[in-house]
Design goal:
By secondary structure, the chain is an alpha/beta fold. It has 11 helices and 20 strands. The strands form 4 sheets. It has a 9-stranded mixed beta sheet, sandwiched between helices. The structure holds adenosine-5'-triphosphate and magnesium ion. Adenosine-5'-triphosphate binds at residues 98, 100-106, 128, 140, 269-271.
Length: 450
Amino acid sequence: MARPVTRFTCSQCGHESAKWLGRCPGCEEWNTLTEEATASGGRANARGGGSPRARAARPVALADVRAHEVARLKTGIGELDRVLGGGLVPGSLVLLGGSPGIGKSTLTSMALGNLAGAGHRTLYVSGEESAAQIKLRAERLPGAALSVPVLAETDLDVVLATLEAERPEVVVIDSVQTLVASELTGAAGSVGQVREVADRLTRLAKARGIATVLVGHVTKEGSLAGPRVLEHLVDCVLQFEGERERFYRTLRALKNRFGSTNDVGVFEMRQGGLVEVADASARFVGEATRAPGSVVLAAMEGSRPLLVEVQALVSPSEIVPPRRVCTGIDRNRLALVLAVLGRHAGIGVGSADVFVNVAGGVRVDEPGADLAVALAVASAARGMRLGRPESPVACFGEVGLTGELRSVAHADRRLAEARKFGLAPVVGPESVTLKAAIKEVLPTARPVAA
Ligand SMILES: Nc1ncnc2c1ncn2[C@@H]1O[C@H](COP(=O)(O)OP(=O)(O)OP(=O)(O)O)[C@@H](O)[C@H]1O
Ligand SMILES: [Mg+2]
């Protein structure tokens, strides 16, 4: 039997070659050529005006297209359903990416368990773990996780044939990098293999209406499944994030053809699997210390307001230059806020060490966190508590270079969330300048560490 034809394509510039080369002749990059299957038939003569045999198709007016409302498949995990935009859409492809050990297999096993429990046909394909390992995990998960049929297989053809035979409504492929298409010689996980595997799974998923979740590893560079080949192909890209030393894990949509990309789900890993943290604000506010150097930030996690505690410590330094250490916020924003504090609000930290931390391992990547950093540092520098002891202060707002406070998105929702937890006053952009905001909540006294 003749070997199927493959070609080698440069993942950087798209140069094509009949044989593998260490260095691409097109862009002169090393190790960028990856093997791919050539589409059978027609592609070569499709150049120019198209094949003479092709019949012209008739475009349809969108108003005449009949689209029936499809019921979404609820995974039973509220936070996951919300991030997906209301559940899995039949026939759609979802790529779930995340670093090793973050809980991708746990999340997908739990979702399939719930779906199986609700009477849907499911299938869990694992190329990484044996059926026995999967069972061990399922045993500690709640619900019907043990009733999900599993297939431990890495051969793409076998997986596709099984999908055709079983016709599940939802399938999880854990992970897309472990499946191999036998007609390609590239190793499992190479760009060519991943693209071929995803392409063939997509075709089957669309043709048979199977909701497919592809689990993908995050590469060293932090991108999903190598170059962004998969991200274009799938309908929805979910990123599962969190660091080993932090106990909260967030799930966010980077792309979603059926919903918003603003929503974020918050989880915590426990013995019994991933537990949704539906009211993270309550927990963070409850744990807030109310000591000098602490303030509650009314942040936004996607479209959801979240109250987190920002803490600062200002202490005399023994080294030059002094330390500027922060976790959970951007280092450059800290430098900016410290400069504005010194120049426009009269609170210079000079040669003191400054540490800023967002408690609970949360990361806030928004300009609205500036004011919280400024107030926490001001309070730490003066060694005085913000506001009155009985009611902790909440704040949000961007600090401008001229010392002004700038408005940020969703002010009303941030305010409402802070009020819900009895935080008062809520300092925001209405204070106009950083200096005025500090005056409002910080009693005047001689700075102790300036
Ligand atoms: N008994 C347990 N109690 C609490 N947490 C556990 C327990 N067993 C495993 N875990 C957590 O589950 C994580 C592994 O989850 P999971 O296998 O779903 O991750 P993954 O993202 O699929 O990893 P990989 O990239 O290796 O496939 C571990 O890192 C650990 O934090
Ligand atoms: Mg896994």
